[in-house]
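Ras-related protein Rab-15
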Amino acid sequence: MAKQYDVLFRLLLLGDSGVGKTCLLCRFTDNEFHPSHISTIGVDFKMKTLVIDGIKVRIQIWDTAGQERYQTITKQYYRRAQGIFLVYDITSERSFQHIMKWASDVDEYAPNKVQKILVGNKADEENRRQVATEQGSKLAKAYGMDFFETSAFTNQNITETFTRLAEQVLAVHKKDVDLLQSSLTGELNLAALEEEEGLCDHMSADQTNACWC
Ligand SMILES: Nc1nc2c(ncn2[C@@H]2O[C@H](COP(=O)(O)OP(=O)(O)O)[C@@H](O)[C@H]2O)c(=O)[nH]1
Ligand SMILES: [Mg+2]
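Tokens:
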């Protein structure tokens, strides 16, 4: 039987509450958009498989709640992420300023090899824009990150953003993937199962797959 995937990566969505993390994830995995905001509770994930350079890359994308009270839960997940989306809302200067705080948390808690990408969401809301595109690209450049403006509403740059981060993660783990492909063993699971460390003890099995948007 054909293998379902060659490599499994864990990606994490970070950013203030309300910037559109849950909507970005629902748009990417299910091509859906929900106009009302229902706060994400704690941490939740969705999966999708991409084919990059002939390699089946299964990505596990973790959605987080930006609220302060969930910070301790979230930080446990930084450690095992291979890629991180730092998301702000182009109609919220405040959410953009907070990117620095999110980035410094990532520096502190995530592995050194972690790949990051800056995302300015709600690009469809041009008339409410508070953060210029140049401000986003300048910040991304300062941090050495790629940058995309997206819209979960119109589907602008959604596939591009998720694919780019997966490509970056694949590139830094290329040596491991090459080794794996020259062997006959199964898939490479870089995102070790969270149950091993009991991180999902607070969630029930059906909660882990549900869409909270
Ligand atoms: N116009 C517009 N609204 C969006 C977009 N993405 C999310 N929203 C809205 O912003 C609100 C918060 O989105 P949500 O995904 O729950 O944010 P989260 O707290 O970061 O997960 C919801 O009312 C969404 O409908 C977008 O790209 N464009
Ligand atoms: Mg959410």
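The radius of gyration is 17 Å.
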